[in-house]
Amino acid sequence: MTSTDHIGQSHRRENALRHLAGRGRFVTDLALPRMVHAAFVRSPMAKGKIVELDVSAAAEAPGVVRVFTAETLNPICAPWTGTLDHFAGMKSAPQNMLAEGQVLWAGHPVAMILAHSRAEAEDACELVLLDIEDEEAVVDGDAALVEGTPLVSEGIDSNLCFRTVLETPGLDEAFANAAHVVEDSFTFGRHTAVTLEPRAVVADFDPSTGQLTVHHGTQTPYQFQDVYAHQFGLPDNKVRVIAPDVGGSFGMKLHVYNEEMAVVAASLKLGRPVRFVADRLESFVSDVHARDHRVSARMAMDAQGTILAMDVDDMTQIGAISTYPRTSVAEGNQVIRLMGAPYTMPDYRGRLSVVFQNKVQTSQYRAVGHPIACAVTEALVDRAAEQLDLDPIEIRQRNLVADDAYPHVSATGYQFEKLSHHAALAKLREIMGYDALRAEQAELRKQGIYRGIGIASFVEITNPGAAFYGVGGARVSAQDGAIVRLTPSGEVHCAISVTEQGQGTETIIAQVVADQLGVTPDQVKVTTGDTDTTPSGGATWACRGAGIGGETALRAGRRLQAQILAIAGAVLQAEPATLALAGGTVVDKATGKERITLAEIGRIATYRPDTLPEGCDNSLTAVQHFAPTGYPFDFTNGIQASHVEVDIETGVTRLLKHWVVEDCGRIINPLLVDEQIRGGVVQGLGPAFFEECMYDDMGQMTNASLADYLVPMAGEMPDIEIAHIETPTLDTILGAKGVGEAGTAAAGAAAMNAVNDALRPMGARISQTPMTPLRILTALGHV
Amino acid sequence: MKADITLTVNGEAVRETVEPRTSLADLLRDNLRLTGTHLGCEMGACGACLVMLDGVAVHACLVLAVQADGQKVETIEGLNDSGLIKDLQETFHDRNALQCGFCTNGMLMSAYALLAGNSDPSRDEIRDALSGNYCRCTGYEAIVDAISAAADHRLNKAKGAQ
Amino acid sequence: MKSPAFEYVRAESVADAMSAYAEADGDAVYLSGGHSVVPSLALRLQAPALLIDLSNIAALSGISLHDGWLRIGAMTRHVQALKDPLIAAHAPLFTAAAPFVAHPAIRNRGTLGGSLAHADPASEFPAAAVAMRAELEIASSQGIRRVPADDFFVDIYETAIEPGEVLQAIHVPSPVAGQVIGFDEIARRRGDYAMVGAAVQAVSRGSGLEDVSIALFSVGNHPVRARKAQAALTGRMIDADAIADAQAALEDDLDPPDDPQFPASMRLHLARVLLGRVLANLEAVA
Ligand SMILES: Cc1cc2nc3c(=O)[nH]c(=O)nc-3n(C[C@H](O)[C@H](O)[C@H](O)COP(=O)(O)OP(=O)(O)OC[C@H]3O[C@@H](n4cnc5c(N)ncnc54)[C@H](O)[C@@H]3O)c2cc1C
Ligand code: FES
Ligand code: FES
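^ Those are the sequences you sent over. The predicted structure of the assembly is below.
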């Protein structure tokens, strides 16, 4: 018997209390004995040859301990190449820590200065003589593919990183027979994660024992343990990666960066701790960027508005080198596979071109690929509705996969176990008061006030198995592990491989374990983020913390439950099957009557194992790993709506309200789920209206500071109302799926539809993000 | 040349010798190891570094330590210990108004300063008061809710006292 | 983003400050609120040998009324523009502008003098000063002079303050009977520098508007007085036609900078829209 007292409850996060008291423990806060500070000299140009690099004056500067260049640092690290086998034919140049001969983007690290303070390291950076012979930078993806354009980097034979096509046999016929075809071209700007805590690492190599400890603000400590061990030739049990509190991650902090590798290398060389915290300026030119897609797409419909097919061409620009170890192709790959996903669309063609350019790398960032696929699909659905004179709700009702039609396989080959699009749509209509909003919209238009309502259905990929990266040869774990133990005093401890960046991982794990052991979540202490003290696992990426981590914890908890009951049975001379755990005690299963406390079990098994019958195993520790089986991914679904008001004279959009109906399967903690969704929505609205990494023709990012790059702030963001449908996955006992990316997946799509709905009376439309006043005014013909 | 400064930090007299270029934030974090004050941009754009300086909220990244010579500084650690923001801490906790926690110091400072001057702020006024506080994780609504709830508690308490 | 090294002195008088400046051979920067200076140091956009802190100088503080002019000390913080009753009564465009300037904590530190001396073309207070026909009190080794705001703003980040001189105070003529004002801006986010902004002041008489004063900002290298628009409104009652004429006149008044992210045509368009809105919502202040 498993009690379910705590799964499903809105437990508050205990670890939030530390932050509220100013007692967070971030890598940025760490100061170790003998520690030195790193700063990097970076290429000021997007592309060029290093003609001269003279660090002698910098090496003599006050406070400077050491200066490294490619020549003196790179040899201790094996180069890495961001390709994967399952992306057939993809290519990318090998990388190493500091630029060797050629610089590939403005911001590319060229030299590393280590000093007693960061200020002194920065002072010394100014003394480095760096002469770069400027070469023509490739800044535009379309231009990059034109014959005769220079190559982005050495080590590649064309600027095309990867190309693929996905096509059903009936595609051409579907378009030939269509009653209606709508089409458009879209541009999705480049943006970036801007985690409030920048990337931070303190590497601490102790030559006396050969132990390397890396305090690393990352979501995937085991991956980095493996990377450091492999690239630097160390046994992985001598590499400890600790990810303490992490000030935001969102996918950005799971890639291998030149600077982190260089910091580890420097610590290995110096035998002392080396600290690097990216300042905000270098974050903008060294953190991965995201998106940067140009998509042309068309959709075929029959006379009733049934979607027959989509034909999509995505060109995505990924910077100079594909990221390691997950590549920069995964996003485009997901874009073309998620197109049309909510709909019973039988035919499809998706073409993908992944192109190099002399800019910062792009790669996985929250909701990888989803916002692009969703925005394109939903924009075309709205255009179709307009053409057929159907209400946007009506056309979706006609085309969303029926709730009783599962399992269902999409035209792109994704297998859906069970989704709830129609239930979600109905609920959305109700919570947003759709009909009243439409009436209000019509009324306000008469007064010259232009409001728009935009809707976007979506599916989200969660709980990925090895199909994502493992099959392509990446050493990225798709399994997770947990160690659950009963302490000698009868309290519970769980060490687990999924990590916490504020989502509430530790809280939900405590809830799940508590229910297996009949205790309260506050009796379960959860440890995460340290490769020495927790079992190895995938940690946190692609929405797997609750679904996979939760299931791992559940199974570990059940295993410990069985062990406890076996000991209790031996002590009580009862069949373990007649016993259960509840209220911190072992109870009689039939009557619920207390038999013995967990504290007593802990005491006996620890201090008086001699009193146990012979052969009775006194272990109070259970270990369990879990790898998802069954469906390759657990898809979730949902729908979002955005309500906006466009000032048609200024092009400024006001976000009035946002709604989300979400089905993430079993909800472990509603409070945390809702806040994941809200945060995700705003991370989708940011790039829809504000966020964009802007570049000039020379490949210089022109707004690379927090004063110029516009993040979404409290004043502009709307309140977000959330409702749920719960369709648990049957692949696991727990039934939970992921939710972390759902908000981001469709918020921008809903917003774009809303803006276009507002602009419709003027005959204007916009299909580029961010939807800035300039672009809206241009669409309106004012500029 | 380094300068000797004396200031009161969270009620304790502090004497430090600093380079004039040292920001108040770096003094607090590096010299005094009060790491609850965070740095997110070092140019006044994110609000992670807010502290109270002689009773008003300021960006510790934009104030030089030498400028604060002779002044009183309250950091999150001090406000926490004094109990002055206990109600805000509780409503933030209840409402899950923080995720990674990196912005939380600044949010609490802005909230504390707002409520000191406006006992019954509207949601819009709260959002306005947070206009310089960046949060990547929460989407802001929970923070607005938490501040609003703390204001309500204070008002109810004041009514009860009458 | 750590500043380069520099020396620091806290001046006790204007004379003190000026002699420190002279002794540093001009390789010095005055520091008031520091909210423009400190970020620019952190960005290593400048590297002066010496920072001269003006915050302790009595002559730069205080708000007082003399002969129909309000004298506002240069060290007056933005937040005082928001809250001080004398400023609200006698320099109401500063009060109207203040909520648009940055965020609460920045307003606690940033100073009016610093904002005017810094002369960012997208700044609110400089335009308000121009629209109010303020005069700037500048101290030099030769003595003190008063410069009309129209002559004060010279170019981007450039004013009539010569190297080493100190802006002591801002003098604003008190509103006269019938005075109306309007202030607004279009910005991407709350507290951001304006995409386009407008500060307007006029005297409303039975016969129409007199003494119309319009300063637009973020439309050129410094606040721009819209003379043609002023003329178009003078002697007229505010109605749709008058507003339209003023908006049309901006074509001649403005020559906005052109950049792909922000074309001149967009600035001109926004300036017209904004001016129309401000004129339609003028408020009486006296
Ligand atoms: C995040 C952020 C957002 C901001 N947003 C806005 C905004 O929306 N609108 C806006 O207008 N401003 C904005 N500002 C700027 C802020 O208002 C500045 O503080 C102000 O413009 C300068 O004032 P200060 O007192 O800080 O001057 P300081 O930074 O101390 O000085 C500015 C310049 O003026 C000189 N100076 C200062 N005082 C004198 C004097 N008395 N005599 C001679 N020279 C002097 C200094 O040497 C320096 O060159 C923002 C600042 C930040 C950090
Ligand atoms: S660190 Fe001070 S405002 Fe960002
Ligand atoms: S909680 Fe992470 S930045 Fe606000």
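Residues B 44-45; C 29-37, 39, 54, 74, 101-102, 106, 110-111, 113-115, 117-118, 120, 123-125, 161, 166-167, 191-193 surround flavin-adenine dinucleotide (ligand 1) (CB under 6 Å). Chain B has a mean pLDDT of 97.

Shout if you want it in another format.
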